[in-house]
Every structure is written in structure tokens, then in C-alpha cells.
Write a sequence for this structure.
């Protein structure tokens, strides 16, 4: 989902293609699963895809669960016109008060870091609109880029790009998320049974493992080739850089991101938490 204050503006047609490509990456990483929460959907279930984007996840879920109602919400009307009969899409701002008439059994939110200004409020509203025993599932990318073998120097342009991205987002009131903050705020909202899953997206094809090598190549297509569009507003609006300064900086960032001798990766987390049963 994107907002008027979005810190990562892109051409919407290109962003839609990137969202669909990213959905494929998650499908591959999850070996075909659409979510990780331990919940079985049935004819009485209802699911909210918060920040649905192109709606591809919601459509796939609706196709796989034809008796489950699936609602997708986003600020951008980029969802297809023809969708499964059990899927509905609405153009709304998730930061406004929620007005859904019935509770959900699963609230799903993926790759929304930087799109929500008040995450504790988002978690509170999610809690209020879940059925007892229902789950919230959150999946996102973490900045800056990490490395386990010392091949990514913290003075490098690639590492500094990630660090400065975090700094700029905070200055613009759109903080990028860490797992520590997410878990703490979920607890404060009343959630229990919080479970974390951690993954790595290599910055390019550097891994030896064939599956991770392929994932790294996809990550470069998803992020590496889009570093300008993903972060230009952050650097110019948040840090006050000129476009010329930013473009010169990105020359080295791109060079390092595609260098297989640098074994960097983006941490990816998936966290699901349950609303307690009524007592």
C-alpha cells in the first residue's frame, strides 16, 4: 500500500510489475504457501489483505479457498477488474479508523515498511477487527543490508545506502521496521503466541546453493535495478541531497550490489501472532 506521504514513490505501472514479481519470490521462498500462520480457512472464514497492491496474493488466496471471503485494501486502484467471486477490493487508507462490519480470521500485511506512520495504531486496529483466536501475519524487509562473512564493509556505499535509507525514513515519519519493535508493539496491542520466521534475500547470485543463487538473482531484479525509484524521495526529501549527488552515489551502490564477491543479503522476517480466545 502507498500513501500520499509515501517515502518510496515509483511509476505505478513499474511498481505493479515489481509487486507481482515480488509475489512470485515469496511463493518460491514459501514453497507455494500463501501464509505461515497456523490457521485453517473454511466457509466461515474472512481474510483481510492490508495493503493489497495489485491484489495478486488476495486473488490467489481466493482461488485456493473459494468459500473464504477475501478483502483487499489499498490506496491505489491497480487491482484487476475480473476477480474471483469471493474476493473484493476497496480503496481506503489503513491509517484512518477501520469501519469493517465483520471481524477477520486472518489479517495479512506484506512489505508495508515505510507505508504506515503509526504502527502501534495499526496493530490495535488489527486486534480489534480480528475474531478471537484469529491471526495477524506481517512480512517485511529489513534495512540495512547484512553480511555474515565480512565481505561487506560498513564504509561501503552499499551498506551506507541501507543505513541512510533507515535514517531518512525516520526523519520523514515513516520508520522502517525491526523485528524487535514489531514484537514489542504486538505484545502491547494484546497479541499472544508470537512466532518469528527469518529468511535471507541475497543481493545477487553470489550463493553456491542453487535455490539461494536463483533467489539472489531475483532480488537484484526486484531491488537492485530499482534502487533509484525506491529511495530517491528518501534521499532528496529526507536527507536533503540533490538529485546529482544521489545519482553519483548510486553508481557505486549498484556496482557493489551486483558484485558476487560481496555476500550481502536483505533480512526478511515473517511474524504471526494470535488474538487470544475469549474467556
Amino acid at each position: 500500500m502507498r500513501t500520499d506521504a509515501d517515502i518510496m514513490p515509483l511509476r505505478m505501472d513499474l511498481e505493479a510489475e515489481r509487486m507481482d514479481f515480488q509475489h512470485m519470490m515469496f511463493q518460491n521462498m514459501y514453497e507455494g504457501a500463501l501464509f505461515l500462520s497456523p490457521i485453517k480457512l473454511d466457509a466461515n472464514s474472512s481474510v483481510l489483505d492490508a495493503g493489497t497492491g495489485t491484489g495478486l496474493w488476495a486473488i490467489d488466496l481466493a482461488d485456493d479457498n473459494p468459500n473464504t471471503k477475501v478483502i483487499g485494501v489499498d490506496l491505489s486502484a491497480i487491482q484487476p477488474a475480473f476477480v474471483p467471486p469471493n474476493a473484493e477490493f476497496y480503496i481506503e487508507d489503513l491509517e484512518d479508523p477501520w469501519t469493517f462490519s465483520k471481524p477477520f480470521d486472518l489479517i495479512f500485511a506484506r512489505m508495508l515498511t515505510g507505508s504506515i506512520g503509526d504502527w502501534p495504531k495499526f496493530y490495535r486496529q488489527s486486534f480489534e477487527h480480528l475474531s478471537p483466536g484469529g491471526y495477524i501475519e506481517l512480512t517485511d524487509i529489513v534495512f540495512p543490508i547484512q553480511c555474515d562473512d565480512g565481505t561487506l564493509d560498513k564504509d561501503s556505499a552499499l551498506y551506507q545506502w541501507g543505513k541512510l535509507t533507515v535514517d531518512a525514513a525516520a526523519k520523514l515519519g515513516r520508520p522502517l521496521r525491526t523485528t524487535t519493535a514489531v514484537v514489542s508493539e504486538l505484545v502491547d496491542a494484546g497479541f499472544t503466541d508470537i512466532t518469528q520466521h527469518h529468511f535471507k534475500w541475497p543481493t545477487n547470485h553470489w550463493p553456491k546453493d542453487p535455490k539461494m543463487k536463483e533467489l539472489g538473482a531475483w532480488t537484484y531484479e526486484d531491488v537492485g535495478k530499482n534502487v533509484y525509484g525506491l529511495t530517491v524521495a528518501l534521499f532528496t526529501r529526507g536527507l536533503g541531497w540533490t538529485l546529482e549527488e544521489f545519482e553519483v552515489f548510486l553508481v557505486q551502490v549498484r556496482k557493489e550490489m551486483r558484485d558476487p564477491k560481496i555476500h550481502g543479503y536483505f533480512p526478511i522476517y515473517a511474524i504471526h501472532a494470535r488474538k487470544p480466545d475469549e474467556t
In short: The beta strands are 46-50, 69-74, 87-91, 104-110, 130-141, 146-147, 192-202, 264-274. The domain at 12-274 is CATH 3.40.50.150 (Rossmann fold). The chain has one domain: 12-274.
